[in-house]
């Protein structure tokens, strides 16, 4: 180091000496007595530097002190998952592995709307709302609402920090593709009155702001003011109607709602209009047909409804002519309406009166069993698109199915970008029955359209090999995937998976389809951790499943996943699917562990019948284990329905702190030992409880202090250990050892009595 005497100081009696910094060192102020080493990721090649330069790809904010290390933008967030609820999407992710050396990491969400045919994406625009916000997110989750229904979106989650804006390189983000579900239309907001006479009111309205699909029809409900219990409903495909048969000079309340394939939207607010008052001339006019809304009794209405339903069911077969004349008998005012307004009203407009009651109107799609088709080929072509084999490129074999290999490949349809698919093939030399059963799955799958149900692209039946082409799920079967990634996910991510499965199952049960083989091995998971229910079939499903075993009644059933009533007397319902769903919950929360471990099927049946249930998986939130136990209620009517399960999981996802309470570690029993009260008072939840029950509570503290804090640990206790713990009284030793012995004998491997 050279010593300099600054100019101008020469005349002073005191001489200050300053150090000149070497390369790699700096001194922010010339007055500082010493040099500092360049902070991490910075350097200087010059002498006497007052600051250090940042290395390539590292930056410094103006407000960063020169002593602070240079930093860089964070890496991309990780493991993003999405939950779609109609037109809302909840995203959650894990912070980036590299924060770039800064603490000011926040997140930015970019939203793109993508065309499923061309694959082209555009910015979402201003209609999307972000909760709590789109930029500067501090938490690792966000909710997007007011998205369009049935639309493909790509969300890019970017982690940014104080130096991201200086980075000329590519943005680091994780992207999530989602397809929003169908949503019911928004309410009609504007209704205008048209021509008003003393007996009629004409109305017109505008389509809802967010139709969320094609509007199939409108339902107009009206009633005389303050007479709400007696109302009339008109259905119309137009955005205008005339309500007639009204009382002169009376106020009527109107509400309108729209229906799309997703169901009815909410009713509009109430609009009130008044008919013209009756005039003397008019009232004496004999040519006027007096129309009175008939307030019918509940009995007549119900009868009418039943007849109406019977008729609407048979309408397609017989034509609507005789049906509508019969309906006119049930609805006197309809006779008049049809005669009067056929020319100007939509023939499908219907009018019904209600009195103190509601009718569930048809419109919900249901699953059609392909067995009901005489010709199975007709069924498959009704529900599945025929694809030309030349559009498919098979890339590699990914597994084996009952009927042949399962491959991955690519599908290029006209006017669409090529995209990855899974291809199930039917092996050569198949029988006609095998072909029918193989394609049966496509006939079923093709009827479903839901983001949590595996999507069928189409079938190849006109050339060989016969193939079923579905969307490709990058992570394969859920059970294998979880086993491979043991302990790698947050609880919220696991609950997200469960939510998806429950949502798919809700859709299936709404369609009237009972899966019968719901298990993690039959769920597929994609790169965004979206789970989809797969493996559809009729009898075939169970034939195909290596887990399925023959029961004494001859059926083949996957015992460990199946509800007792389905095993005992083949009562397969959506409620038995709920039982299986509880087992899937257990599989997911235990990362793919085998339910009931190595117990034999016979032991499982016996134990379940005796009231034993699987214990909680390790580190499982208490709320989730409780939901599993609810799914395993013996009485199938007491089990939750899938829509309740979805709502419950949504609540837990929205309020993650509710997942913090785990099943008490000491009450959680391992697969080695499960408590069953030797004195018949139920399972012991803790060592203390057990010792108290056998009147040995005085040893609780000693047991706990010496590591025997769980029933698992207690199971290993020997007489020697007891002596070491200071249990010297022979009577006490006997009591404890006998109780342990008794438990071991009575215990069923790994299960808790309900
Ligand atoms: O666990 P995996 O990789 O996922 O092995 C099985 C195998 O084929 C036999 O069923 C995989 N598989 C089935 N359908 C699909 C699909 N749509 N996308 C990706 N993999 C699939 C399954």
TrEMBL record:
Family matches, as PANTHER family: EPH RECEPTOR A5, EPHRIN TYPE-A RECEPTOR 5
Catalytic reaction(s) noted: L-tyrosyl-[protein] + ATP = O-phospho-L-tyrosyl-[protein] + ADP + H(+)
EC code: 2.7.10.1
Principal localisation: membrane
Membrane-spanning parts: 289-311
One Gene Ontology cellular component: plasma membrane
GO molecular function, one term: ATP binding
Segments forming domain SAM: 682-746
InterPro entries: Eph_TM, Ephrin_rcpt_TKs, FN3_dom, FN3_sf, Ig-like_fold, Kinase-like_dom_sf, Prot_kinase_dom, Protein_kinase_ATP_BS
Domain Protein kinase: 392-653
Origin species: Anas zonorhyncha
Membrane topology designation: Single-pass type I membrane protein
Keywords, alphabetical: ATP-binding, Cell membrane, Kinase, Membrane, Nucleotide-binding, Phosphoprotein, Receptor, Repeat, Signal, Transferase, Transmembrane, Transmembrane helix, Tyrosine-protein kinase
Domain of life per record: Eukaryota
Listed SMART domains: FN3, SAM, TyrKc
Gene Ontology biological-process entries: axon guidance
Any Pfam family: EphA2_TM
Positions of ATP binding: 424
Residue span(s) of domain Fibronectin type-III: 73-183, 184-278
Protein known as: receptor protein-tyrosine kinase
Subcellular localization: Cell membrane
Gene3D superfamilies: Immunoglobulins, Phosphorylase Kinase, domain 1, Transcription Factor, Ets-1, Transferase(Phosphotransferase) domain 1, Tumor Necrosis Factor Receptor, subunit A, domain 2
């Amino acid at each position: 180091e050279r010593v300099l005497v600054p100019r101008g100081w020469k005349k002073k009696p005191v001489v200050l000496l300053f150090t000149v910094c070497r390369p790699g060192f700096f001194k922010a102020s010339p007055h500082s007595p010493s040099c500092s080493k360049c902070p991490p990721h910075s350097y200087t090649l010059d002498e006497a530097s007052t600051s250090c330069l940042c290395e390539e790809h590292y930056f410094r904010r103006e407000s960063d002190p020169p002593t602070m290390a240079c930093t860089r933008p964070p890496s991309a967030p990780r493991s993003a998952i999405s939950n779609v609820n109609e037109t809302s999407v909840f995203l959650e992710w894990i912070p980036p592995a590299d924060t770039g050396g800064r603490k000011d990491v926040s997140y930015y969400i970019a939203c793109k709307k993508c065309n499923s045919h061309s694959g082209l994406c555009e910015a979402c625009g201003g209609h999307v709302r972000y909760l709590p916000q789109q930029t500067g997110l501090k938490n690792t989750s966000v909710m997007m609402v007011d998205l369009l229904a049935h639309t493909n979106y790509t969300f890019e989650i970017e982690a940014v920090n104080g130096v991201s804006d200086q980075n000329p390189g590519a943005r680091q983000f994780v992207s999530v593709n989602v397809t929003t579900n169908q949503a019911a239309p928004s309410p009609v907001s504007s209704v205008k009155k048209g021509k008003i006479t003393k007996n009629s009111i004409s109305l017109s309205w505008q389509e809802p702001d967010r139709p969320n699909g094609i509007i199939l029809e409108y339902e107009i409900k009206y009633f005389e003011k303050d007479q709400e219990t007696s109302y009339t409903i008109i259905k119309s495909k137009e955005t205008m109607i005339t309500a007639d048969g009204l009382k002169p000079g009376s106020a009527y309340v109107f509400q309108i709602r729209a229906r799309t394939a997703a169901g009815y939207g909410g009713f509009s607010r109430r609009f009130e209009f008044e008919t013209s008052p009756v005039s003397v001339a008019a009232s004496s006019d004999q040519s006027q047909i007096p129309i009175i809304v008939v307030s019918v009794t509940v009995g007549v209405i119900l009868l009418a409804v039943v007849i109406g339903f019977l008729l609407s069911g048979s309408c397609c077969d017989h034509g609507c002519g005789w049906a509508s004349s019969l309906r006119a008998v049930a609805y006197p005012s309809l006779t008049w309406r049809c005669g009067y307004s056929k020319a100007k009203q939509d023939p499908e407009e219907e009018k019904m009166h209600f009195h103190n009651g509601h009718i569930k109107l048809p419109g919900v799609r249901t699953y059609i069993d392909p067995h009901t088709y005489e010709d199975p080929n007709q069924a498959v072509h009704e529900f599945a698109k025929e694809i030309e084999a030349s559009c498919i490129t098979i890339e590699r074999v990914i597994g084996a199915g009952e009927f042949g290999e399962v491959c991955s490949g690519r599908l290029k349809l006209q006017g669409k970008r090529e995209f990855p698919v899974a291809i199930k093939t039917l092996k050569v030399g198949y029988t006609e029955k095998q072909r029918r059963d193989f394609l049966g799955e496509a006939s079923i799958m093709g009827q479903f359209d839901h983001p949590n149900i595996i999507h069928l692209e189409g079938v190849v039946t006109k050339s060989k090999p016969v193939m079923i082409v579905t969307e490709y799920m990058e992570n394969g079967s859920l059970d294998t995937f979880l086993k491979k990634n043991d302990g790698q996910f947050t609880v919220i991510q696991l609950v997200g998976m469960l939510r998806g499965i429950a949502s798919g199952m809700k859709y299936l049960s709404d369609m009237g389809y009972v899966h019968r083989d719901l298990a993690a091995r039959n769920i597929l998971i994609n790169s965004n951790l979206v789970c989809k229910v797969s493996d559809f079939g009729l009898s075939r499903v169970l034939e195909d499943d290596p887990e399925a075993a023959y029961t004494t009644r001859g059926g083949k059933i996957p015992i460990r996943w199946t509800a007792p009533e389905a095993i005992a007397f083949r009562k397969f319902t959506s409620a038995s699917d709920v039982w299986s769903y509880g087992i899937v919950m257990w599989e997911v929360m235990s990362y793919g562990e085998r339910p009931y471990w190595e117990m034999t099927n016979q032991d499982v049946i016996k134990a379940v019948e005796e009231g034993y249930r699987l214990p909680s998986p390790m580190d499982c939130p208490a709320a989730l284990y409780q939901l599993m136990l609810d799914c395993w209620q013996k009485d199938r009517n007491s089990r939750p329905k899938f829509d309740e399960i979805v709502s419950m999981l949504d609540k837990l996802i929205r309020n993650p702190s509710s997942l913090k309470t785990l099943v008490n570690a000491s009450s959680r029993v391992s697969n080695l030992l499960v408590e069953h009260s030797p004195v018949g008072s139920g399972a012991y939840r803790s060592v203390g409880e057990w010792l108290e029950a056998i009147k040995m509570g005085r040893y609780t503290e000693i047991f706990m202090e010496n590591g025997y804090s769980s029933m698992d640990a207690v199971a290993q206790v020997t007489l020697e250990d007891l002596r070491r713990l200071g249990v010297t009284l022979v009577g006490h030793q006997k009591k404890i050892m006998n109780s342990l012995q008794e438990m071991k004998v009575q215990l069923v491997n790994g299960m808790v009595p309900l």
